[in-house]
Amino acid sequence: MTSAVETRREYDVTHLRHVLRRGLVLGLFTSVIVVLMSFITRYTAPPVETVLGGLVLLVGLAGVIALPGIWTGARTIEGIAGAAGIGLFATVVFMLVDVALLQPLGMWTNRWREIGGGSNWWYHPVWWMAGTLLPWLGAMILANRAARGRSASVIGIMLPVLLAAAVLAVLGVLLGFPGAGWNLSTFGIAFLPGLILAAFLSAAGRARP
Hints:
By secondary structure, this protein is mainly α. The chain has a domain at 10-151. It is built from eight helices and no strands. Helix 3 packs across helix 7. The two termini are 29 Å apart.
């Protein structure tokens, strides 16, 4: 009788409607972040640009990395793959918003275009790959944390990622990595390998069945 009234929690929720609905939300969230970054880079300069841009970018990365795994309740490869699926569909949503609204409205400054060699389309394949990889790794960290009985929270997922990225950035500066310096750009470059390292380390203490 008691079990019949207990609150049920669903894990590894990957049915198509759920993945598409959450992917739509994440794609629109990403679009808002990109618009904010566009205004920040267009109308501000360091140090305001560095501070505001860093905060907005951190919120955006936290959402893309952590939310899909939380939404699927990732515990096994099923939920992890579902999180990657949410990320993939979110990139499709964003690209539609980008082509239909952001580019016609001139949201991209010359600074953004120059990164891609003058093309507005350079980042779409990269966005598709990164938008799938980041949620996949985030869900992996979440599942490994859950296997050790730890909370499935955005902070719990992002904290080891930020620490790993900071360590790699410092090592890059101290070891004289080309172009590395005590700046936000170096930390940004170190973020992806930091995420990969954090995902790898998250499995180290995972309990075995």
